[in-house]
Amino acid sequence: MTPIDRHTPLAAGLDTFAVVLFVAIGRREHEQDSAISGLINTAAPFLIALGIAWLVLRAWKRPTELRTGVGIWAIVVSAGMLLRHFVFDDGTATAFIVVATLFLGFFIVGWRVAFAAIVRRRSAAAV
């Protein structure tokens, strides 16, 4: 059995936060109901896609690697849009796809870039 990286809870939490933040901001910008049930319904296809991404990529092995983040991002956007359209019967307008791709990429990949920079800085300071 492969050990789980010690940063797995942090990584899973940050990825989940990125998805929920994306949905919360989108719902607010479009003046939709701010009830938790609406947030959950809107986030569901992307959270399911996030779970799929983590399983397919076995992200718990290297959750903070940039390559893992890029894979998670690609799966969350593509599978999330497919689920949203075909399973949840919601819209997937081109503008929505573009915004989702940019926002989720910035946050899902971005926190990993920041994490790597912090690790490099700490390693350099320790030498």
Reconstruct the topology from this structure.
Elements: H1 8-29, H2 36-57, H3 66-87, H4 94-126
Q: What do you see in this structure?
A:
With 127 residues, the protein is an all-alpha fold. The protein has one domain (8-126). 78% of the residues lie in helices and 0% in strands. The longest helix has 33 residues, at 94-126. It is globular and about 50 Å long. The model has no long low-confidence stretch (mean pLDDT 94).
Keywords for this structure?
127 residues, mainly alpha
Q: Which residue ranges are poorly predicted, with pLDDT under 50 across at least 5 consecutive positions?
A: none
Could you tell me the number of beta strands?
0
What is the H/E order? HHHH
Biggest sheet character: none
User: How far is it from the N-terminal to the C-terminal residue, by CA?
Assistant: 34 Å
Q: What is the chains' assembly state?
A: single chain
**% residues in beta strands:** under 5%
In total, the number of domains comes to 1
Average of pLDDT: 94
Helix count equals 4
Radius of gyration: 16 Å
